[in-house]
Specification:
Elements lengths: L13 H8 L2 E6 L5 E8 L9 E7 L11 E13 L12 E16 L2 H16 L12 H7 L3 E7 L2 E7 L6 H13 L3 H4 L4
Antiparallel strand pairs: 1-2, 1-4, 2-3, 3-6, 4-5, 5-6, 5-7
Length: 196
């Protein structure tokens, strides 16, 4: 990912927060042709730099057999089309506001059944954490154990993090306010919430 300096994250924890809030990632491995799988990948700790991400996918998916040494994991955050009608001036051109984090690092396929079960359970707990009430998976542990052989878990040891948080920062405040309202009016409220 090419990073644009004006679109760096506002704070040091923004990248980790985006990853936590958007764990349904795109896992990409090189090769001819490159292979990509949409799958949950979680950040178990507080920081992204130097972290180890945990993910899993169906064992029937042949992608895990072609991982190679490193993976690219793409986390997409809120995004929305910005129409020139929101700017209040012409000439103007449209753009897209978005947040994305790309993580690259060595991958390690987990072969131990109990460790795989642990990754699946941690993924469920991470997904349940923001819910109120959160579902308690304790009573379903045997069900998880019965299906875990159909899953391949993996770790990605974060080597590099790249991101863009592009939310009309290059526009004056009055234009940002109009873009924010336009995005809310057209169903892009999550992207609008990032416009300061």
């Amino acid at each position: 990912m090419h990073e644009f300096e004006p679109y760096r994250p506002a704070g040091p924890g923004d990248e980790a927060e985006l990853v936590r809030r958007n764990p349904f990632a795109l896992v990409v491995s090189g090769g001819e042709p490159p292979v990509a799988t949409h799958t949950p990948v979680i950040l178990p700790g507080p920081a992204l730099d130097g972290a180890t991400l945990l993910g899993h996918m169906a064992r029937a998916n042949p992608h895990w057999r072609a991982f190679g040494r490193e993976l690219l994991v793409v986390f997409s955050g809120p995004h929305g089309y910005v129409s020139p009608t929101a700017y209040g001036y012409n000439p103007a051109v449209p753009t897209w506001n978005y947040a994305a984090v790309h993580v690259t690092g060595p991958v390690e396929v987990i072969t131990d059944r109990d460790e795989t079960l642990d990754v699946v359970e941690k993924t469920v707990l991470a997904a349940e954490a923001p819910r109120d009430p959160a579902w308690d998976p304790t009573s379903s542990r045997e069900q998880f154990r019965a299906i875990v052989d159909g899953v391949v878990a993996f770790r990605v040891h974060v080597r590099e993090v790249r991101s863009n948080f592009k939310f009309s920062q290059d526009k004056p405040e009055d234009v940002r306010a109009r873009v924010r309202e336009d995005q809310r009016a057209h169903g892009d409220g999550a992207a609008a919430d990032f416009i300061s």
